[in-house]
Every structure is written in structure tokens, then in C-alpha cells.
Amino acid sequence: MMYDVIIIGMGPSSIFCAYELLEQNSKMKILLIEKGHKIENRICPISKTGKCQKCKPICSIIGGFSGAGAFSDGKLLSYHLSSYNNNTNDIYIGGKDDSYIKEYYSIDEIKNIMKYTDDIYLKFGASKNISGINNRKEIARMQIKASKNGLSLIDVPVRHLGTEKSHELYKKLEDYLIQNIDLMFETEVTDLIIEDNTIKGVKTKSGDIKGKKVVLAVGVDGSIWLEGLCKKYNIKTRNGYMDIGIRYELKDEVMEKVNKLMYEGKFIGKLKPYFDKVRTYCQNPSGFVTPETYDNGCTLVNGHAYKEKKSKNTNLAILVSYKFDEPFNSPNEYGFNIAKKANLLSGGNAIVQRFGDLINGRKTTKYDLINNSVEPTMKSAFAGDLSYVLDYRTVVNLINFIKRMDKIIPGFKNDDNLMYGPEIKFYGNELVLDKNFQTSINNLYSIGTGGGLTIGLMMASASGVMMARKLVSENEK
Ligand SMILES: Cc1cc2nc3c(=O)[nH]c(=O)nc-3n(C[C@H](O)[C@H](O)[C@H](O)COP(=O)(O)OP(=O)(O)OC[C@H]3O[C@@H](n4cnc5c(N)ncnc54)[C@H](O)[C@@H]3O)c2cc1C
Question: Does the Cβ of 265 fall within 6 Å of ligand 1?
Fold first, then answer.
């Protein structure tokens, strides 16, 4: 069997690529391969065992049908619905202001594809409610307050699916794709087949599969595998960003205004003494902090929120962006070394520390947490000291940012607020892509997070739509 298109991974970028290939009546023979489970079989055992079981072949939080999207609470960042971002500086594409998408598409084209993508989410059951488009005056007031304190508040409306609704929505998409194309689950692509700098197919443990074109849609988890492939086959890369930081948990009442007005507030700043970019990311009102375990056994943290089940806390990531120059070329290795330090100190878990303890040079103990006014939602986290794990520069960046945020949101620097760490966003080295998202290997393409094209659900999904249209137009030539 020779496939016209093989897509590796079944995260949102892959799903939307396959969906759009079908919509375009492409008649191409399409295969999607995923190492994780079908969405209905993705179960995280932590709710029963209370401890991360380091599931193999993949953690159900980050892999399987719908990728890292399934257990995410599905915040679709809807830039196309904001009337305020009409110029290139304002549109904040999935957090990446150096993306090829921005290079190869005009703002209007991007917004049109986002609207198209958003409509597919609506068609498959996404909630019609959008946060952040009402209360314009109050949002503007908060933006001014942020600006006076040296931070920016990026204005992005959010369509919030909720973790349970995300599951239902992606299940419908899974059923639709199963009816129309070939899907292989629990099958890991172990290698690529490349001859004369041209892709010929992929290798799996159960045999080789031939394909005329192969799309890498391997996400954060696959970016580690991809980094190795790039070295092995000399696939061209450029140094990408790395985001290193923590998951911050504080009482809902402290975050009440931002939660109500915007659901997710995206604050960004470059503060003294380093002027590194520090930002809030993935805010979850009444949410839960969760472990995130990678293929190599490293446990980090993330967060999500359910539509029905609620905690009394809001969590959000606070991330510092770094970009290192040559000869550095192993961002994943760098990130995992930080994660390994945390896991070594905590018996394989992530670490939690009170903000007050971090600034007072004190380790948090499990007894401190019993009386803490902010009750930790991630029970498996080990009470400890993050200053043994994160480097000085990151700790200083985080403390300064949190103190500055307190001027905009009083209570943001309360001693009882909790820092879980590390939270690291692995983007690997970014692949060098041409305007068709083709890598330096002929007919090998890359979309979504894995090769560094996008960040976040909406842009991963939109990159799938873009990819499909490019494949169809190449096929018609
Ligand atoms: C807990 C959590 C909450 C999040 N919340 C949000 C949110 O609210 N809003 C938002 O915008 N973003 C959120 N994100 C990020 C978002 O989920 C990702 O940006 C998005 O899923 C990226 O899509 P993708 O298609 O690029 O890759 P992924 O979704 O990561 O999918 C890649 C897939 O490829 C598979 N794969 C990898 N390597 C191989 C291989 N060798 N062979 C076969 N299969 C392979 C993996 O198993 C995985 O299923 C969250 C992420 C997490 C983990």
C-alpha cells in the first residue's frame, strides 16, 4: 500500500489537516498514525492512585487521539474575534511572534483561517460563549494599569471548551475521521525512510509504511524524538525558544476580576535586571494543577479546568523565554536536565513551594501545606525548594514578575500562593520550513508544536488547515 499522505501524530494539527483534506475532496489516500490510544481509552490513573504511574507508551495527558488537546481544558484563543488587533504587532500568533505563519501569511489570511477553524470547532459542538469580548472598558482600564507597571496585557478573546467538552468534541471528530480515512492507533513511528534527500515512508515496529508525502505533527512529546531525527538525517533546524518556569496557584478570589472579564489574562513583561520575556500562560479559573509525564519518565507540571468540576483556586503558568545561540543545539536536553533535578529531589514527582518560602530562602514542608490558606490541587507534588532546581536567573525573573503583577492584581504575591515546578514548554529546535511548511527533506512537512511552527490549540489546528490546502494545491499541479 502506498499512501499519498502519512501524518504522524493525531493531535489537533493532524486532525484538522486530515479534516481539511477530506473537505477539499482531495481523493488522496491518507493515513494517520498515533502511538497513544483512541480518545475513549485515554485514562489518567492518578485520580485513583493519587500518584503519577508514568504510563507507557505515552502519558494519556499528552498523547493519543487529540494529542495534548484532550486533557487540556480547551481554551481556544480567538484572535480573529478581537477588533483590537488589526496590525501585525498586535496579532499574537499562538505566543510566537517569529513564526513562519506570520512570515508567509497576511494578518487577514490568518484571521480568515482562524475563523474557518473556529467554525469547525463550533460544528463539532464547541460552546458558543466567548470570554473577553464584553466589558471592553474594564479590560482597557486593566491594560492601562498593566502598562503603567511595565507589563502588557494582551487582549485575546477565549472560547472555553472545558476538559469534559473537549473529550466529547474530539470523540465526534475521531468518529468522523475513522469513517473516512485510515487511522492506526498504539503504533509508534520509530524512524523515517529517507532516500536521496526525499521521504519515502515511515518505520514502525510492525513494519514499514510507504508514503509519497509525510507530515510531522508530533507535538511536544514528539519534539524529543524529532530532535534526534534532525541530527541523524541532517534536517535543517534553527534555534528556537525555550520556556522555563512554574505553575502558579492562588485563590480564585484574588484572580476574580481577570477570570470574570477575560477568563485568561495574558500578561507579558521584560523586567530588570535581565529583560527576558516573562509571561503568564494557560490560566485555569477554578482549575487543577496536573502532572505531565514524558516518554523518558520525567514529570513536570501543567494545569487545566473542567466545565463542571471546580476547585477554589486559579492556576496559570509563569514562563521565562530563553533563546541560546550556537553551538547550543539541544533545547530539549537542557529542559529535561532541569526536570530531572526536580524529580531526583522529590522521588520522581514535581515540587511545590509556597511563594513566601521561596523569597525567604526556606524549604516548604508537607506540614506547611496542611495549614496553607491555598490548598494544593495537585496532591502528588512534593513539598520542597524550587531554588535547588531552577537557575538563579529564572528564580529572579519569576520573583520580580510576581511582585510586579501584585501591583495590578493585589494578592498575586501572597506568601501562601503556590509555585509548582518545573513547567517547561518543549519546542525543540525549530525546523527550517519553506512557504509550504516543507522541511529540508523533500516531501517531508511539519505542522503544530513539534517542529516549532505554532503554540496552542487554535494555532495548531489552523496550521493543519493551512497544510491541507498546500498539499491539495501541490497535488493539483
Ligand atoms: C494539560 C494541558 C493543557 C493545555 N491547555 C491548553 C489550552 O487550554 N489552550 C491551548 O491553546 N493550548 C493548551 N495546551 C497546549 C495544546 O494542547 C497544544 O498546543 C496542542 O495540543 C498542540 O497540538 P499538536 O497537534 O501540535 O501536537 P500534540 O497535541 O502534542 O499531538 C501530537 C501527537 O503526536 C503523537 N506522537 C508523537 N510522536 C509520535 C510518534 N513517533 N509516532 C506516533 N505518534 C506520535 C503524540 O502521542 C501526540 O498524540 C495544553 C496542553 C496540556 C498538556
Answer: no
